[in-house]
Amino acid sequence: MKQARIVLGVSGGIAAYKSCELVRLLVKAGIAVDVVMTEAATRFVGPATFQALSGRPVWTDLWDARDAKSMAHIELTRGAMAVLVAPASADFMAKVACGLADDLLSTLVLARRADCPLLMAPAMNVEMWQQASTRRNMRTLAGDGVRLLGPGSGDQACGETGDGRMLEAVELLGHVQALAAPKVLEGRRVLITAGPTEEPIDPVRVITNTSSGKMGYAVAQAAADAGATVCLVSGPTALPTPAGVTRIDVKTAHQMFEAVKAQVAGAEVFIAVAAVADYHVKQYSEKKLKKDERHPGLTLELAQNPDILAWVASQPGAPFCVGFAAESHDLLQNAEAKRKRKGIPLLVANQAQDAFGRDDNEITLIDDTGRHALPRGSKSSLARLLIAHIAELLPPT
After folding, report:
1. Which regions of the chain are under pLDDT 50?
2. ω before 151 within 30° of 0 (cis)?
3. 228, part of any domain
4. 301 lies in some domain
5. Angle between the 132-143 and 90-97 helix axes, to the nearest 10 degrees?
6. Same domain as 248, residue 101
7. Residue 203 contacts residue 286 (beta carbons within 8 Å)
């Protein structure tokens, strides 16, 4: 890490103060930081602050002629491990989504080489984040290969609460470090399931669960960062596809099962993170079921869904299988029983009430050598630890 360097872009927003701590952490980790600020960013934090923290000149002007032999918008990204824009304002995201380049930072982003990934940490008011135009720009950026980090949710400087908070500096540090992580799964093919499934009752109603898909998507990103070729079979979520990952969208458990069967050949690792519904409605109604005031009760007959993980694990020459157990009580006992019942080498256990929908988690890895408790952390950081543990258990190629 001591030779690594990134370009940190700072756009206008109150979250720019968090970028000061980010620079401090990056430098402490041995990563050189070249800071590029928009004019609006300088209204929140002065360039001198970033220069003092980074120990390097700060760039703010496209027409800066301090180095007559080169152009900053081209040279700064050459040899950089990545460009990270934090905070990325709604305006700056829109600008990049449209390919505009009217200041140093936007021009630098457009002029970077393909081998220099672009990461963005969105930060804006909750209403701005939820606007259709912002969501459209987010999808465009993700489709262009931009890795979106966050945003998080919580109290905002404007006094409102909701999505739009920039991730904390320590979380962004983890994402940067992941880029330079050892490629412990280089050349491996990994198949992952994530998200919930939806089992239809009638054309407008489904049986589902509260899984957000965040843990599965974090695992997919961590596996891709570790050099693996990753296929993600995902139930319905609102999450962007992880960078470098092939995604197959499904809805029902049976659709997920068919997708896994179609993709499992050649996979060396199968990680079943999805919260697959155990049952589906036996008699699907082609028409919407009407409420009958005379008979307020409704009886649904349920049939069991296929056990995808158990099926994969039972196949001849099965991949290295990893399961997840989300339990409401007796976590470790139930998880260990599940691992033995499925016949898999590794299982990840967590409390259901502490996992679904949250950005952080606390997990225990259970394998043939025993239990390995990991401290509470972001799902991204836990995913990287899980991938490292899997790599240690895999037979050599």
Report:
1. 1-2, 68
2. yes
3. yes
4. yes
5. 50
6. no
7. yes
Pairing of strands 32-37, 269-272: unpaired
Give the C-alpha distances (Å, rounded to integers) separating 99 from 66, 106, 134.
Answer: 27, 8, 15
Domain that holds residue 279: 189-393
| Cα gap 72→112, rounded to integer Å | 11
The answer to the question of residue 246 being in a domain is: yes
Structure tokens at 218: 């974090």
pLDDT of residue 360: 79
List the catalytic residues. 158
Of 198, 191, 324, nearest in space to 250 by CA: 198
Do residue 133 and residue 220 come from a single domain? no
| Helix residue ranges per DSSP H, the chain | 16-28, 47-54, 72-75, 90-97, 104-111, 126-130, 132-143, 169-179, 214-225, 253-263, 308-314, 331-342, 352-355, 379-393
CA angle 301, 302, 308 (to 5 degrees): 165
Check residue 164 and give its pLDDT: 83
**CATH code for the domain of 129:** 3.40.50.1950
Tokens describing residue 72: 């900053």
Contact by Cβ (8 Å): 383, 366: no
| pLDDT of the residue at 2 | 42
Cis omega (within 30 of 0) for bond into 196: no
Among 179, 210, 245, residue at a domain's last position:
179
Has this prediction a pTM greater than 0.70? Answer: no
Cα dihedral 274, 277, 283, 288 sign: negative
Strand ranges across the sheet with 118-122: 32-37, 5-10, 82-88, 118-122, 147-148
SS3 state at 353: helix
Q: How far apart (Å, rounded) are the C-alpha atoms in residues 380 and 306?
A: 29
Does residue 184 belong to any structural domain of this protein? Answer: no
Question: What's the structural domain count of the chain?
Answer: 2
The pLDDT value recorded for residue 10 is: 97
Question: What pLDDT is attached to residue 261?
Answer: 97
Residue type for 203, please?
P
Collapsing DSSP states into helix, strand and coil, what is residue 341? helix
